[in-house]
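#structure-requests
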Amino acid sequence: MKKLPMIAVEVILLKRTSLAVMAVGLVLAVLISNIGSFIGDGLKLDELRESVLRLHILANSDSEQDQRLKLMVRDELLESGIFSGVSGLKEAEEAVAENLRAIESQAENVLRLHGCSDRVAAELVDADFGERVYGDITMPAGRYRALRIKIGKAEGHNWWCVMYPPLCLPAACGDDNVEENKTVEEQDFDQKELDILRHPKKYKVRFAVWDKIRSFVKGDTVQNDKNDEAA
């Protein structure tokens, strides 16, 4: 059997090494690309959570009347026009903070008109919400700024939506559902945010991983399963 000249062996080894380096380079490029995409999506999720104000209403109890009153208060608040002329979440929060007592009075007036003497407490809070579907969009689970309305003992099933931007329109039928404000969707969310809202399954796993990493780094646990019930 003939032995290859030393130079031929060196050429073959060089080619193999070059191919190996190219293969490793391609793998690294793919990994870096995926990591970049993962981080970009995670940062966009954080941005989305920090751009909306949720409305969270807790009924006095689970009785049929208390649940009906909860929805009447919801419709009144969604129609209140409190965010008229508001531009951005900061201004929306300021509008709510300045009108908490007025919001309480507005809600209590609804109750009084229907023979209920329960008191109402309104507050701005950071709250953990489960994933929630509104028409064609799904708001990701996580921690959001929220206007929380407590009616009476606040021991009944809760209801929530996005108050700012005004994604939810009052329900004409007075049930748990609200109409989706598609005009607001197009105006207040960019294409990436709309993709997140309209294709939740595409991002579900990476967002769960993102939240785990973020909670580990910041030592802040996002309780995505809290407030799971809304009715």
